[in-house]
Amino acid sequence: MSSHTLSHRFSKDFLFGVATAAYQIEGAHDEDGRKPCIWDAFSRTPGRVINGDTGAVACDHYHRMPEDVKLIKSLCADAYRFSIAWPRVVPDGRGAVNEKGLAFYDRLVDELLKNEIKPFATLYHWDLPIEQHGRGGWCARDTSYAFADYADAVMKRLGDRLAGVMTLNEPWCSSFLSYLYGQHAPGEKNLQATLAAVHHLNLAHGLAVQVVRAHKPDMPVGIVLNAKSIHPGSDKPEDIAAAERYDAFHNGVFAEPIFAGRYPAAVMEALGPVMPKIEADDLKIISQPLDFLGINYYFPDRVVADPSVPFPAATQIQLENVTRTAMTWEVHAPSLAHLIKDMGRRFKLPPIYITENGCAQFDEMVDGEVNDPERIDYLDGHLTVLADLIEEGIDIRGYFAWSLMDNYEWAYGYAKRFGIVYVDYETQKRTIKASGKWYRDLIAGRAQAGSK
Ligand code: IFM
User: Fold this and answer.
1) 131 carries an active-site annotation
2) Staple 429 to which of 273, 281, 424, 445, CB 3.0 to 4.6 Å?
3) Which domain holds residue 220?
């Protein structure tokens, strides 16, 4: 579908945005009082990141912020979702607030507002200050409270001008990928540590919601989950049961405490003895009503029963002959609808924003242009699904393309490009890809159509 045809399916107040995260784009890792975070340490550890790439320079956004805001403007985006670096604002994790760190985000927010772009800030996108890691990181309950204090500092300074606040980005990654599978900082493989991180992240979220509301009761606040769209690998009852357990383990440990005030029974039954201490009010704090749920969706998870692995005794399988991205992730837009409907069946959800969606492709610059039809197809397919869901009456308020520009893709370093804008890391030149122009026309077309 051309971007023009799709434009007509979104109302004028549907929010189209682009998203990034601090460690992935800012660089300036040791400037103006910023201190190291767990990703500075992890990325410098041999063997952890492809090519030993680090976020020390990244897209140099810290020095190029005004031009980057112009770029966002040129894409006609209504909103920009960025993250605030905890190690810039409270460099030791706890204690002194760094004025220069806050001043950067202050300038960013003002620049966005000047350009009529709504600022949506994520408080935590994985850059835990190394000093706080030394105090136990997410395995320690203290980190939830340190996070709330940091949130307080941010709200004091920016709370009057933000359009929305996301507490955490993808706590699954900050726990499972970081403490169970060892692929993200701090690179551990320990179930007990993982479950402690899960609970302390949930608690940090709840405490931060309280902080945000204490500053500004009407500030839209939510969390961003990369909830998995789970499909049993077959119709066999054992695969269906495996998919349910997999859901409880990977999705339920976040969604259930947040939206139902309890941990999944299957998880408590299987893993109760290794769960951290859950104190009396924790679940009440965690389950405060939210103004929105942010969903990051990229690919489906297909699972079968596998008694040879520990709980949830399920293994992912890969389908053959399907389209895959440069990450080897399966492209399957209908799974976005499956995810949203499945979550909606399980919980009473607040309004939804798609806070990330996009793909890495093998982009190349040829004669000054980057032609990326696969990314256009990906965006088109997923936005078409969203338009269908909205027409069915599901309350979806906005969509943020991941990402504004190519950036530091964590353990893959700079090897994977997710941007709708190409970054030449030698010169830091930004070039809008064909997908970026397509997205711009989609947004602009909607305004011109004056639709709905
Ligand atoms: O780049 C990441 C982002 O930081 C979090 N969500 C998934 C993206 C692609 O892997």
Assistant:
1) no
2) 424
3) 3-449
Nearest to 162 by CA among 88, 212, 91: 212
CATH number at residue 88: 3.20.20.80
Residue 67 DSSP SS3: helix
Q: Please tell me the total count of domains within the chain.
A: 1
Radius of gyration of the CA atoms of the chain, in A: 21
Q: How far apart are CA 113 and CA 134, in angstroms?
A: 37
d(CA 119, CA 108): 9
**Interval 307-326: pLDDT, tens:** 999 999 999 999 999 999 99
Q: Which of 170, 244, 374, 409 is flagged as catalytic?
A: 170
Residues with CB under 6 A from ligand 1: 21, 24, 170, 296, 356, 402, 409, 418
- Cα 197 to Cα 172: distance, rounded to the nearest angstrom: 9
The residue count for the chain: 452
Q: Is 238 a catalytic residue?
A: no
Cα 385 to chain centroid distance, Å, stands at 20
CA 359–ligand 1 middle distance (angstroms): 10
> pLDDT digits over 144-193, tens only?
999 999 999 999 999 999 999 999 999 999 999 999 999 999 999 999 99
Cα three-residue angle 273-173-158, rounded to 5 degrees:
115
Please state the pTM of the whole predicted model: 0.98
